[in-house]
Every structure is written in C-alpha cells, then in structure tokens.
C-alpha cells in the first residue's frame, strides 16, 4: 500500500488532492511531510477532539499533595549527604556514563532575533552565544573528569541547517565534531475541528513541533538512543536552550539520581510567590507529576504551612536527569508506556476555496504536543532536588522585561560577583546588586562556585576591579 492509499483509508486523502499540479520539488516536500505522520496515532488523537482540557480530568485536586524534595543545605560543602551524592555523580562522569542533552528547536523570534535561539548572544561582555556558554560548560567538565561527555542537540525543521552551520563556523567550540550530535524534533499535523488535516498551501500540510516531550522519541527515531546504549551511556542531563545559568553538568544532581536508582529526576526552585509561572511538583497517590501553574486551583497555590511558607512550593524549571533505559521504555512501541498528547486550539493558516493561504481571525483547528514532565508518573523512584535561582535559572524568553537578555545578564553578573565575594573579593554593586562595572567569567575558568574557587586559588587572587573584568 502506498502512502496516498494509506491516507485515503484514514479519511485524509485530501492532502494529495493537488498532487497533479505540484512540481517535483513540491511533491518531494509533501511526501516528506506525510512520511512523518503516523495516521493510526492521529486517528486516536482526533477521537479526543471533543474532550476539554480546561480542567485536567486526570487530576483529583482534593487528593493532590506537594512532592517531597531533597533540600539544599545552607552549607553544601559540609553536608555529608550532598558530598556523598557529589562523589557518586563524579564517579558516573569519570566512567563515561553521562551525556548532555539540549532541546534547541526554537527560533529567537520573541527576542527580535533572526536565527536559532541558541545562536543568540547573551553574556555581559563577550556577547558569547547560548550555545557557546553550554559548550564551554561541557568542555570544562570533560577536562575535569577526563571523560568523553558527548552532547546531543535537538534542533527543528526550521533551524536545523542553521544550527549545524553555526557549529561548523565556530569549530564546534573546541568540543570536536565527532562528539556533538544533531537531530531534528518530530512534527505533528494540525487538524480542523472536523478532524481533517489542514493544508496551508496546495502542496504543504500545516505542521508544528510535537513539543519538548517529543524530544524523547526523537532520540529514538534519530538513532541517538541506540548510539548512547552502544557507548555505555545511561544518564542524560536534560536542559533547554534558553537558560544560560543552568548547571549543564551537575555532579550533585547526577549523584542523587544515580543513588536513588531513579528513572527521571528533576530540579526544583522554591516559588517566589503564589502565582509564579512555574509548573508545580505534586504527588497524586504514589505518582509524581507536574501540574501546570495555569491548572492549579487558587486555593491550593495559596495554601501555607505552620511557618507561613507556601505548601505547594516546588516549582519546575525544566531541568532533568533522565535514564537512557527509561527513554527506551517510553519510546518502544511494544511498551505500554507512552507520553500523552495535549491539545491546543489555535489560529492556523489554511488553504481556502480560492486556493490562497488565509490567516483566520478566530481559532480554526487544533495542534498536538507532548510535555517531557509527563514522563514523571511513569518513572521509578523519581526524585526532586532543590536548587537556587542564580545557581540554575535565568531564562531568556522575552525581548524586554521579565526573562529578557537584560535580566539574564544582570543575574549572570550577580552570580559572578557572589563567587568573588566567596573568595573575599567585593565588587562595587548598584542598588539591585548588579556590579557597577561589567563582570563576566567564562565557564572555562569556573562554571560553579567550587570550580571557580579552585581556579581563583590557582591564580593567586590578583585582579583589577577598576574596569570591566573578564576571566577565562
């Protein structure tokens, strides 16, 4: 059975209705799009179109409890439990069991930037890009632990070629082309409320990325998962491309994950206020899950304990450790485990009766995507580990205001000033705690307070604070 017949059998034959009028290139593109679509899977999703997700029917909010988490002590260096976890994480790194995994399928559109988001310049002095920041963190960890530590980067249909070219132009930032792997995120077709696949032109289906949860099956479909298994890699450090402060390779986090025999571990940030836009780590019976902030009832977000602290405190920052074997189970078609799709009603450009692409004024269809945190209910021994804002989280999402380049660069400098202060060096700061003169520390000099302290000691503590300071 050819692909056109298969689509016809599933009531989607209209996607080929203009086939005879397409040129060779247009036909090839349409065949490429249709080859990505699992029509059996799509049939099941179409059957859910009448179901509402306004209030998640799978959550009994009366039974919802806060998830437990590993609290960060005031002094990590003197805490036996955290130091034991660090040793376990370092052992896993030295054994070559760890790989970095970055979800980088987005463009810099919201930042007013024309290009893959990972190529956006973000550091305060050198204007190094997000990709360079992560590359230097990975390179520094390779040097420290004498390990291969490969880097897997998920791109997308819209930025894959540009991302690969960027790394080639920058000689892979010293990592070596053989240890940086790119693969593309999967896509899903948009469908109308009648369940029919939407065409955006006579030879093109309206397709959209399948969400960050789709990164797990993209690992499998690209062959990356099999490659990891062949190399003895069983631990993935997962993070998203928009967060320059993330500890891309954190031995403490890796160690806690490994010691617990966890399938999937997550970092949490204590919420700054009730309505902060962070997903909430919760327990529903014996299952851990993340409830989106928009789904949490007001009465739960406002709950406080006897000390006045928020009861539902643990916010998700999309930083995880995932076991390779767990990803294999989630992506194996013979397995009963699979991530659910979520539906989003959208305004989707479509091919009208006149043969022109029209942008609708009102929502006219549905897009489907998966969320990576939906893997948590399936995970064995999932754990949550506390982190700090400056230590792990200052995303770049908006051109101005909250989570912008300005706020992220300020946070980077606050962190660097904190590292210096730990070593007895105080820099002049403004009323917001940002150094008056620009300050930047390359991950190759220090990528954490501990690694910075080691490098600083080796330097002898000599520095000129009367001008901008860059340390590499």
Search tags:
472 residues; alpha/beta; Spore Coat Polysaccharide Biosynthesis Protein SpsA, Chain A; 3 domains
Molecular structure report:
The structure is a single chain. The protein starts with a helix and ends with a strand. The chain is globular and about 75 Å long. It is 30% helix and 19% strand. The strands form 6 sheets. Strands 1, 2, 3, 4, 10, 11, 12, 13, 14 and 19 form a 10-stranded mixed β-sheet that branches. A 3-stranded antiparallel β-sheet has the order 6-18-15, with no helix packed on it. Strands 5-9 form a two-stranded antiparallel sheet. It has 3 domains: 36 residues, no CATH class; 359 residues, Spore Coat Polysaccharide Biosynthesis Protein SpsA, Chain A, CATH 3.90.550; 75 residues, no CATH class. With 472 residues, it is α/β, with parallel strands linked by helices.
Helices, by number, come to: 14
The number of distinct structural domains comes to 3
**What is the quaternary state of this protein?**
single chain
Share of β-strand residues: 15-25%
Distance between the termini: 60 Å
Quick description:
With 472 residues, this protein is of the alpha/beta class. It has 14 helices and 21 strands. Strand 2, helix 5 and strand 3 form a beta-alpha-beta unit.
């Amino acid at each position: 059975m050819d692909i056109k017949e298969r689509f016809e059998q599933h009531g989607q034959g209209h996607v080929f209705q203009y086939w005879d009028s397409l040129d060779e290139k247009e036909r090839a593109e349409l065949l490429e799009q249709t080859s990505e679509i699992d029509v059996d899977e799509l049939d099941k999703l179409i059957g859910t179109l009448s179901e509402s997700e306004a209030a998640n029917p799978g959550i009994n909010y009366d039974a919802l409890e806060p998830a437990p988490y590993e609290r960060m002590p005031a002094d990590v260096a003197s805490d036996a439990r955290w130091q034991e976890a660090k040793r376990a994480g370092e052992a896993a790194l030295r054994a070559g069991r760890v790989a970095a995994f970055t979800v980088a399928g987005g463009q810099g559109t919201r930042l007013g930037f024309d290009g893959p988001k990972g190529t956006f310049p973000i550091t305060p002095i050198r204007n190094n890009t997000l990709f360079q920041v992560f590359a230097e963190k990975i390179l520094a960890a390779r040097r420290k632990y004498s390990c291969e530590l490969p880097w897997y980067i998920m791109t997308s249909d819209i930025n894959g070629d540009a991302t690969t070219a960027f790394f080639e132009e920058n000689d892979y930032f010293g990592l070596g082309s053989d240890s940086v792997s790119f693969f593309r995120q999967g896509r899903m077709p948009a469908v109308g409320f009648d369940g029919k696949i939407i065409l955006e032109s006579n030879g093109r289906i309206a397709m959209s990325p399948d969400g960050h949860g789709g990164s797990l099956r993209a690992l499998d479909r690209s062959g990356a998962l099999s490659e990891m298994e062949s190399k003895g890699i069983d631990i993935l450090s997962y993070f998203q491309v928009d967060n320059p402060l993330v500890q891309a390779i954190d031995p403490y986090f890796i160690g806690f994950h490994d010691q617990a025999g966890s399938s999937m571990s997550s970092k949490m940030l204590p919420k700054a206020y009730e309505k902060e836009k962070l997903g909430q780590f919760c327990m529903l019976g014996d299952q851990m899950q993340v409830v989106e902030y928009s789904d949490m009832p007001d009465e739960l977000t406002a709950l406080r304990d006897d000390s006045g602290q928020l009861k539902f405190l643990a916010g998700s920052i999309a930083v995880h450790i995932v076991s390779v074997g767990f990803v294999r189970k989630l992506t194996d078609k013979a397995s009963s485990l699979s991530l659910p799709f979520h539906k989003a009603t959208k305004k989707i450009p479509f091919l009208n009766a006149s043969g022109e692409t029209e942008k609708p004024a009102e929502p006219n269809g549905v897009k489907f995507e998966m969320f990576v945190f939906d893997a948590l209910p399936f995970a064995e021994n999932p754990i949550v580990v506390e982190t700090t804002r400056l230590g792990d989280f200052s995303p770049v999402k908006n051109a101005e205001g909250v989570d912008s380049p300005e706020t992220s660069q300020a946070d980077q400098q606050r962190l660097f000033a904190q590292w210096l202060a730990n070593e007895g060096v105080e820099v002049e700061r403004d009323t917001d705690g940002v150094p008056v003169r620009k300050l930047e520390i390359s991950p190759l000099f220090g990528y954490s307070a501990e690694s910075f302290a080691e490098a600083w000691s080796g330097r002898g503590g000599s520095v000129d604070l009367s001008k901008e300071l860059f340390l590499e």
